[in-house]
């Protein structure tokens, strides 16, 4: 199991008790936002790195178009992956670890911190 699988399961378990019908959607949305924010951080880092190295790889509009297409792909990948069978397999594997070990507010704050770091890196020269 990957880190994203564990985080998905923790979100799913937390919201299953509170909002049973929306738990899968909330957990899928969170994992998608987390993965996309990490992708954006890496993209900004490499864009700044290539600019410092005086390499012209692609224009900014093409990079943003590629980012949007990858975000759509990531959302549908997560939707398919965590839709049914994978979630049941995760539930079977994590049945012993029912206790949540992560604070849910810290997990919601993680993508915000990553986006803040991305903004700071984007503003850097």
From TrEMBL:
Keywords: Membrane, Transmembrane, Transmembrane helix. The keyword Membrane applies. The chain crosses the membrane at residues 26-50, 62-80, 100-122. This is DUF4271 domain-containing protein.
